[in-house]
Amino acid sequence: MYSNILSVVLLAAYATATPIAEPAPRPGPSPQGLSSFPSAFSTGSKGLPVKTDFDTSGGSGPYPASIFTDPSLTKHTIYAPKTAVNGTKLPLIIWGNGLCAAAGAFFANFLTEIASHGFIVIANGAPGTLPTAAPTQSSSSGGLLDSLMTSISLLSQGMTTASWQGDSMKWVFGLNGGQTKWGQIDLEKIAAAGQSCGGIESYTVSLADPRIKHTVLFNSGYIDRSAVKNLKSIKSTVAYFLGDVTDVAFANGKQDFEQLPAEVPALLANADVGHLGGFFEKQGGVNGRIAVPYFKWILKGDEQSKKMFFSNPSPFAKDVTMTALQAAFKIIILDNFIVRPVPGGTTALCRTSDIHTLHQISTAS
């Protein structure tokens, strides 16, 4: 039971989605990172947070990254390479947190990993401070209280709406051609992404702003099923990364995928790690291992990353087990959508009886 308490609170946040008073701007950490933060979140059985050290590696990519703040964007946290990147533009990801929490460092390990591969990520909320994590199941005494206190600690920094991601867009487009001290942002390569409640925010901002070409939801989907009608208007590509049946958003995300317009390029990926599994491990765990190549594919046109999604057997499936935290992502293509276009329009996806693999069925010339 304890393993789902924080997950339920995360999902309930966007079921009610009423913003509370905005927090006063908080001082951000130094550009060197969050080494002063004693701990972050990791995950135990099926996504229950456990205490783990904050990942100070800077990510696995070629551009070691860190957390930054900017005095002209005080309600947000920026993840970017530590050293300015010259000679290539950096795609932009605007991020919404689980709980719709105004806590920009909530997903620090995961977002730092993404930024290290040459992205600028702007997360809702100033960095603030990370809360104490809940105990593992093996030490579950007090687990209910600790999980609730974790949620309260995060929400004490305030809650966000999709307008916060809209503020990120306004800030970026107010720069001189997207030029920042970390490098030049590619204003043609933008994705809105978020976890749980932040995924719903990403839907909203993508529907409102045609400059956003890709929408990526982690452990998310409409709770209010009447809102699914909004998907008829979506123009971006859409990807869902879910946490299997112990993920409280699994059914919602799966149903959203099923009801997307047939012409919308879409992907549904699933890992048996629950609602929060992987994000708070070093370099974002399994979530980082599949999100990085996905973003490199759709935002950078990286062919090697694209091949990872169309090879047979899939590299995401080779180590699949049903054990929490050891499971790699399994790609699921639903029966009702036997063929789907994908970004670039050159390859189609097909249903497979083996959900651990993704089969390439055709390649147009």
Automatic annotation (TrEMBL):
Kindly state which keywords UniProt assigns to this record, in alphabetical order: Signal
InterPro entries linked: AB_hydrolase_fold (IPR029058)
Q: Which SUPFAM superfamilies does UniProt cross-reference here?
A: alpha/beta-Hydrolases (SSF53474)
| UniProt-recorded name of the protein | Alpha/beta-hydrolase
Record's keyword annotation contains Signal = yes
Decide whether keyword Signal is in the record. Answer: yes
Q: Where does the record locate the signal sequence feature?
A: 1-17
